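Notes taken during the Thursday session

The instructor put the following on the board and asked us to keep it in front of us for the whole hour. The protein is Non-heme dioxygenase N-terminal domain-containing protein. We were told not to look anything up and to reason only from what is written here. First, the residues (367 in total):
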Amino acid sequence: MDNSKDSQDNRIKQLKAFDATKSGVKGLVDAAAGGAVDIPEIFIRPPDELAEDLEVTRTSLRIPAIDLNGVDHKQSSTREKIVEEIKQASERWGFFQVINHGIPMKVLQDMLKGVSEFNDLDVEVKKEYYSRDPERMVKFNTNYDFYMSRAANWRDTLVIDMLNSYHLDPEDLPSVCRDATINYLNHLTKLVDILFELLSEALGLETNHLKQLECEKGRTIACHYYPACPMPEQTLGVSKHTDASFITVLLQNQVGGLEVLHGNQWAQVEPIPCSLVVNIGDLLQIVSNDKFKSVIHRAFGNRSQARTSVGCFYHGVATPPKIYGPIKEIITKESPQMFREFTVRDYMMKFYSRRLDEKSGLNYVRI
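Then, after some discussion, the predicted structure tokens were revealed:
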């Protein structure tokens, strides 16, 4: 008798049974109706992963917080200081938080409130959006790698996939979060333009270099909801991974739970009110020829509170196919080309065809 095959068959049955409810992790919590929530086996992390966690220490270091106040004054000492801070953070951490970024507090609060209110909808309403169809632009589900992962993550996600189509019809969004989402994305567009300018300057390039590469063109917006979890140490909200993006901009509520691997230690990202978290993705590490780092990160749920976050992933141009590769101006004798050219479409197809926590996709294109 092959016990491992029986175990795998049983796991697939459990995954299918959960998925068939179309009610997500929150559906499990709501079904407990105030009683204790039992975490299903499919969410429990494997023993070897839990053991490995015990070997990695935590650090009290914090990712840099960068004040963007005065960033509009080009050729000023303030802007030069901001560029230098972004350069250092992108090279050493791959992560930073931005404050005074110009997006009003109410816009941020309304966006997070919209995510919570969508997840609080009657399950029959949410079921209309529940889908694993890769062609569907707006969909709700639990974990894109649900059937591939070793352990499912304790989160539900409303996804807005604008990788192949850059036009979003507001009517496709759930009405409960429609206006807040459109308003937030409109504000974010201006900030992301500024961030790509600063990153270009931090690489020693012309201000509009990354903009000319259309790094901000294709977007995926992931509105994550992590219900309160009775055993957050047994299951992850998001498995450790790097992002398949140029940059990711994350809005999160004050619950916390995000951790970044820095010098082989986990650093907690303490939420700063009204801040946004920015991280370098794989694609920017490639085009920067390894100067900027896409680093491993993960997130935990919280024992007593729901965590909400909105990640906007900027992928560049996927359709029609556009060739990207290390920026020629950065390649020198001292820094020879480290990566092959690639298309975003190929990179993303590989990303979505594997488990989230598998080794970085950088291995596909490293020379």
